[in-house]
Amino acid sequence: MDFSPKTFTVADYVVFALMLSVSTAIGIFYVIKDRKKQNIEEYLMGGRSMSAYPVAFSLSVGFMSALVVLGTPSEVYRYGTIFSWYMLGFVWMSVVVAEIYIPTFYNMQLSSVYEYLEKRFNRLIRIEGTLLYLLQTALYIGIVIYAPALALSAVTGFHLWGAIISTAAICVLYSTLGGLKAVIWTDAFQAIIMLIGFISIIIRGSVVMGGFENIWRACEEGGRIEFLKFKADPRIRHTAWSLTFGGGSLFLALYGVNQGQVQRYLSCKSFHEAKKAVLLNNIGVILLNVFGIMCGLIAYAYYQYCDPLSYGVVEKPDQLMPYLVLDIFQDYPGMPGLFITCVYSGSLSTVSTAITAMSSVTVQDFLKPTFNWSDETFTWISRGMITFYGSVCMLFAYLASSLGQVLQAGISVLGLVGGPLLGLYTLGMLFPFANSVGAFFGANSGLAAAIWVFIGSRNYPPSPEFLNELSYSTKNCPGFENDTTTSSLDITTTAKETTPYNPPEANLYALSYQLYTMFGFFWTIGIGLLVSLLTGGWKNRKTVDPRLIYPFFDHWIFKYLPVLCLKYLRCGVKQQGFDYKDEQNFELQEKFLLKERETAKSQVQA
């Protein structure tokens, strides 16, 4: 094991530059290809002509990929394989998105997901939803830009801010040139690069360690193999429950109501292609996470007896993977460049997704309803907004440097705003008696409660018993006297020294960051429904446009429920042409309902 300083070779720089060139070339290609039909619909929605496969690739790498490449291996290295339960949460989420959120949005042919909020509630709620999304995305993208820049500066000596500026500049360039089509096809290319990078590390790491069975054995000895953690205490950082349901809720907020992802569904040429894209997306996300977990195990086995973090050759946990790659590929010029390309691919795909979506909602939610300009004008404004938001995200990258481990920081930021936003849409889709007053107070109180818990966790960090960070060995480190260390590098323990007095609410502040989305979601739903009922929501429920309500009880699985029972469960909202006025003719109603159920069942089976 060689701890001497390592850096990029010429071959590494060539590989890295080649990937950036291809990403830019895709944008230029779509400028030339679509130059005669470039309009706002084509630019922001891909002409609604995309097939499921490139969209699925784009969805897989569109939001969490940069954090997966750096954060997941570091997470497994420090806390073990319990993180793999995250994938189960992703599976159930994708089914819910495909069955509830996609049908509602796609059938309305929206360009901005926030149009729904205006149709269901009012313009004020739409503006609030848009502003929350812009804030959430800018904060999160700051983290995503910072992560690969941190990795690049660690392995090449490249200045951190130089790396940040280059990341944002490349994203702005190809996103501005080609619009959504360029972003989706570039995402597909970058997804392949990420998979190749992960597979290369797994193969080389297995060879160096004499087979993956040796890696697994070393990780078992080091306590990294752990799956059966079923404690129900919400203060424990990771359990099977918090990862499955908390993580699934986060993904539901991202894939169900986030403009960056929904914009991809709506670009598909048909509703069935959109559903297929979401379900195929499962394969890509699970593969990326499985490979990330395997790389984390390889890192632990390789550094089992000399932890680079404790030894001091690595400053931050998220620099672990770049350092490992330089170690195991030091005799293979170009391979470290491939890995950094893999990291940058994740970052570029995420940033391009976000700034394109931010541009889209700005034009659709703020400018189009106000100004009667031509499509060509809006297209040029969209390009300018992409450049603007790329610059804004660079500034937020500076703030990200103080948030600690990128994976936890990213999930925390997404959950804080994602929970209230998910609750806002769910209020509209599933509860006909929810009104605009309830939506306003529900969303704002949910956001305030989530931020309150987050700030509290920074001032009163959870005790080590809830963090469960595993121990490291340093017995083979040159000149290092201590045998083992359990140093806590987590952001919650390094933010500030533990305060001697913890108030009673400190138990709430210790809530696992994985549960922030659920916390904000249920707070929004609870307050929203209560305020709606107190402000006449039940009385006005029948005036809601049925197209804005998801017909949950029209599903064929409820076919055995009586008609009157279904009437009350639907809160009196007429859906699928069913008329409740003729309540005496139950036989006719039953026949109509049975026919509708059989049609729905056959569609599901098809």
From TrEMBL:
Q: Which reaction does it catalyse?
A: iodide(out) + 2 Na(+)(out) = iodide(in) + 2 Na(+)(in)
What compartments host this protein?
Cell membrane
Task: Keywords in alphabetical order, please.
Answer: Cell membrane, Glycoprotein, Ion transport, Membrane, Sodium, Sodium transport, Transmembrane, Transmembrane helix, Transport
Keyword Cell membrane belongs to the record? yes
Give the transmembrane ranges: 13-32, 52-71, 83-102, 130-152, 158-177, 184-203, 239-257, 278-303, 338-359, 380-400, 406-425, 437-455, 513-534
Q: How does it sit in the membrane?
A: Multi-pass membrane protein
Q: Domain of life here?
A: Eukaryota
InterPro entries hit by this protein: Na/Glc_symporter_sf, Na/solute_symporter, Na/solute_symporter_CS, Sodium:Solute_Symporter_SSF
**Location, primary (coarse class):** membrane
Fetch the NCBIfam families from UniProt: sss
**Record-stated family:** Belongs to the sodium:solute symporter (SSF) (TC 2.A.21) family.
Q: What is this protein's record name? A: Sodium-coupled monocarboxylate transporter 1
Identify the species of origin: Clavelina lepadiformis
